[in-house]
Amino acid sequence: MSVYISVDSGTTNTRIALVQDNKIIKTVKYNVGASKSIGDGSLLKNALKEGISKLLAENGLTEADVSKIIASGMITCEFGLCNLPHLPLPAGKEELREGLHTELFPEISSVPFTFVRGVKCSDGTFDNTDMVRGEETEILGLYRGEGVYILAGSHTKLMWADESGKITDIKTLLTGELIAAVSGNTILKDAVDLSVGELSKEYLIEGYKYASENSLGEALFKVRILKNLFNNTPAEVYSFFMGAILSDDVSAVLRSSSKRIFVSGTKYIRKPIALILREISDLDITEISETESEQATLRGQIKIIEEI
């Protein structure tokens, strides 16, 4: 019986899973990530210790039963548990496996942590330099062939993968954080209700087109106009707002020469991006479910360590 712990720690959340014979037995999630660990690393350490102990106790196991703890994501950044340099692109399963780093943290567990490094692209120019931590592992779990993978979230990642499964390029957009900041900390706080969820395709496309043809700033103020002067429904206002906010993400995809697009990640961002792309382009769009997206990092971790 093979038992190990999987840790997927991002900017805002940390997911810890108990895995037996490559199957997820149970998962716990903590609202602690790199952003909350700045200046206080004990928050992440305490969450990891509690989560690991809880998973083992609830399943009648001890740390002696665990062969390894494998971790990826922002846990390898300067605000995480172990700050590791990125690997250069192109990178796939072999490169990630060769870059694994193992270290013991006795204050958390007697089982050593094995970390997957993030990856970076850089040709020495500002325009073509970017980096990810965690998504390199997620791509392995999602991989369905050559194309552009959109990983929608706090920081939406556009990642190019070739026919061999290697990541060849990266672009990062501050999508989720921008949505939260604008809807929660500006005059639009009264206009945009993110809990609506329901999309109006007409207003989503209109928001995208208005921002693309004018400017994002102008389009965002039009959200307030829709609510206060035109008395549009909450769903229509929300949809226009999302279309405008996502205009840069969509434009970045359209600038690519790739015809196959795979859209994954957070539903409230994934759905409108896929809808806009289908409506305005002839690209081959594959939308990956939230369940598959949530399990992708674990599947990627399994691919990396399966021959070790």
Polypeptide structure, described:
By secondary structure, the protein is α/β, with parallel strands linked by helices. The chain contains 11 helices and 14 strands.
Would you kindly provide a brief summary of this structure?
The protein is α/β, with parallel strands linked by helices and 308 residues long. The protein is built from eleven helices and 14 strands. The chain starts with a strand and ends with a helix.
Layout of helices and strands:
Blueprint: E1 3-9, E2 14-20, E3 23-30, H1 34-37, H2 42-58, E4 68-73, E5 87-88, H3 93-98, E6 101-103, E7 113-115, E8 119-121, E9 130-132, H4 135-142, E10 147-152, E11 156-161, E12 167-173, H5 175-185, H6 201-213, H7 216-228, H8 234-245, H9 247-254, E13 260-265, H10 267-280, E14 284-287, H11 290-305
Parallel strand pairs: 1-4, 4-7, 5-8, 10-13, 13-14
Antiparallel strand pairs: 1-2, 2-3, 6-7, 8-9, 10-11, 11-12
Helix pairs in contact: 4-11, 6-7, 6-8, 6-10, 7-8
